[in-house]
Design a protein that fits this description.
- Helix content is 45%, strand content 18%.
- The chain has helices at residues 25-33, 85-96, 108-115, 121-132, 136-146, 149-173, 181-202, 207-213, 227-235, 278-293, 310-315, 354-369, 380-397, 405-423, 429-436; strands spanning 2-6, 13-21, 44-50, 55-65, 76-83, 101-103, 215-220, 253-259, 262-268, 296-302, 320-325, 343-345.
- Strands 3-4-5-2-1-6 form a six-stranded mixed β-sheet. A six-stranded mixed β-sheet has the order 8-9-7-10-11-12, sandwiched between helices.
Length: 443
């Protein structure tokens, strides 16, 4: 089937781009223009009409990309028309009347590019990440992956393992022939070297995933300590209800922020206290779980009332900042029991020292995003496949006897398969739906 969709953003705009890809693309161009195909890869101004050239839709620019020299690898065309809803609707309606043409599914243009060998799976994912990037650091990471450094590394490991597999299988096919001792030694040497490189890659503090998904900050503390007020201050809007009534926040409230160029997800949680209310108890349980999973905890308490339970002390054990709110009620004095913790004395009501808190958060973020190795992993599926690959390599290294060659071959085969699944070198059909559904329609 030939697919079509609006590839530029929805809504009214000066220009809208409608993309068409598939065998019927040339027929779509001829039908809408009533003339021959334009010169490939040259912007050509044409009148676009429907109903067999009886009714003018618009005047716009066509760019014609004959396959396989196109984004998808198929015949592809882009119609640059005026961006009103009426023009877009009329264009879609006219194309839909041509046989074997249908509206594209989310990410289907990029999916076809992958299936036709124009891009690998890592590049397809990085295109999706680039489209959805909200901060500079996310944009740079997506472009870095698109440039192929990660896929080059994974493919290099895979090719070296395939050479090992060829030697092992040769021994299986010709058992009477002994492999030279040098080849056997080289096989284990190469597998150990790749194992070391994978271990180094896995020891990246999950920086790539943090950049892609956002750095998770949980605001936790007792009721009425200022958690919701702090969330609203950081997000610069009324994201959470602020009330003097204890237990107002029951569920987790999240907001996505761009904090000094870093992607951040800030969560406001239920006030931590002893409660007999079943709904509130569930909210407190969720709050503690969110705090446990967070990259950084802002443990906020009132500087005046000193509600500081053992639960809150445990949350300060690592990756935490103690926030002492309502300093305006204490004349800036800090209780001695707080001084041993990494803390900031603030007043949200009076807007005191909040800049110091934000600076401290930024420094924590900066440290978390620092890494001494190139970022190769940006998704959980990459990490899991590398972990599985490493497991099979370790298993291979334990097999040194001739009778183990069959099992050794299977270990290397599975290790190469997991590397292949990252870049799409093997059958990954079950992954494609979830990956390309993250795209917008028209990409």
């Amino acid at each position: 089937m030939t697919i079509y969709a609006l590839s530029s953003g929805p809504g009214v705009s000066g220009i809208a781009i409608i993309r068409v890809s598939g065998k019927q693309t040339s027929k779509v161009i001829k039908s809408l223009t009533g003339s021959k195909l334009p010169t490939p890869k040259m912007a050509t101004l044409k009148k676009l009409s429907k109903n067999g050239q009886k009714e003018l839709i618009d005047e716009g620019v066509i760019i014609w990309f004959p396959g396989p020299n196109s984004y998808t690898g198929e015949d592809l065309a882009e119609f640059h028309v005026h961006g009103s809803r009426a023009v877009i609707t009329a264009m879609h309606s006219a194309i839909s009347k041509i046989k074997n043409c249908r509206i594209a599914e989310p990410g289907e243009f990029t999916k076809r590019a992958f299936q036709n060998g124009k891009i690998n799976l890592l590049k397809a994912e990085s295109i999706a990440d680039l489209i959805s990037s909200e901060t500079e650091i996310q944009r740079r990471q997506a472009l870095k992956i698109m440039n192929g450094k990660s896929s080059d590394k994974f493919n290099s490991w895979r090719e070296r393992l395939l050479k090992i597999l060829a030697n092992v299988e040769a021994k299986i096919d010709f058992p009477e022939e002994d492999l030279p001792k040098k080849i056997i030694n080289d096989m284990h040497k190469v597998s150990k070297k790749i194992s070391t490189e994978i271990e180094k890659t896995l020891d990246d503090q999950k920086v790539g995933e943090r950049i892609r998904e956002g750095f998770k900050i949980a605001i936790v503390g007792p009721p009425n300590s200022g958690k919701s007020s702090l969330l609203n201050y950081l997000s610069k809007r009324d994201a959470a209800i602020v009330s003097e009534i204890a237990g107002t926040t029951r569920d987790v409230i999240e907001t996505h922020l761009n904090l000094n160029g870093y992607p951040v997800i800030v969560s406001d949680t239920a006030g931590i206290r002893s409660s007999k209310n079943e709904i509130e108890k569930k909210g407190i349980k969720i709050a503690l779980k969110r705090a446990e999973d967070a990259d950084l905890r802002l443990v906020i308490v009132s500087a005046k009332t000193f509600v500081f339970t053992d639960v809150l002390k445990n949350l300060l054990a690592k990756n935490a900042i103690l926030v002492l709110n309502k300093s305006d009620l204490t004349k800036g004095k800090v209780n001695s029991k707080f001084k041993k913790y990494d803390h900031v004395l603030i007043s949200i009501k009076k807007d005191l020292n909040l800049n110091k808190l934000i600076l401290k958060i930024k420094n924590k973020l900066k440290n978390k995003f620092l890494t001494n190795v190139d970022i190769l992993i940006t998704r959980e599926r990459h990490r899991q496949n590398l972990i599985n690959c490493l497991h099979h390599l370790k298993s291979f290294q334990l097999k040194k006897n001739k009778i183990d060659f069959d099992k050794a071959a299977e270990d290397i085969r599975l290790a190469t398969r997991h590397l292949g699944m990252i870049v799409g070198k093997v059958d990954v059909e079950e992954l494609l739906g979830s990956i390309f559904n993250d795209f917008c329609i028209g990409k």
